[in-house]
Amino acid sequence: xxTTGIILHSGLLAFLIGISFALPxxxxxxxxxxxxxxxxxxxxxxxxxxxxxxPFSDYSEFDEDSDEEADVNFFRNGRFLTVGIAAGYRxxxxxxxxxxxxxxxxxxxLTYFFDLRLAMxxxxxxxxxxVKFTANDKAVTYSGNVxxxxxxxxxxxxxxxxxxxxxxxxLNPYILGGxxxxxxxxxxxxxxxxxxxxxxxxxxxxxxxxPLMRKKAFLGIQGTYHYVNFSDENKTRVSNGGxxxxxxxPLSGDMYDVLFILGMNF
Length: 266
What we know:
Helix content is about 20%, strand content about 45%. The protein is of the alpha+beta class. An eight-stranded antiparallel beta barrel has the order 1-2-3-4-5-6-7-10. The termini are far apart. Mean pLDDT is about 75; it is low at about 25-30.
């Protein structure tokens, strides 16, 4: 009986010792083996050679920001449309200066702005001038009136004045150039059948605008030279209805005008 108890005691002791050795190894195995919740997943980026360059997605953020800034500046400080009335003085060059008298002219202007610097202008001008021709060594004199009307399409470019002094920065200087259609109508005493003709011409000029009423209006001054070539230019003969007289001076020259423009901005 005593021997049996000793054997049972020894077997229980060996079982407990085996469990004690097995438990640390199992716990260590559990600690070394990461759980599914502790595992981290990584995605490896892949690139395909055909999609290495995309012209629609490859852009410069700096250029886009500058364009956006320019648009915001235009909507905040720019003008879309201006309408103005003009009055000024028209003169002539060449022999026209001796045959046509300088006189006031009047007009209307409509200007559309593409951005802060570039604009397109549509203008209408008209004016009457006294005219006097002499022919056959001043033996014959033609006098009367000539009316000149023009429709002008010009592009305006406004200068950047941000780097000048504060007083001059508010001014808007510009240069212009374009085309014009000029109509000339004579009303002369003693000359029949000398009525109306027209020609195309070129415009070149410059101007300056002074803002008024918190930039809602402006007062401008503009000087323009008009290069014209009428059908009788450089000719010394004119029909008087019954014959042909020889003019003492040929018809030749161009036009220029200086205008004051009062306009409204929209």
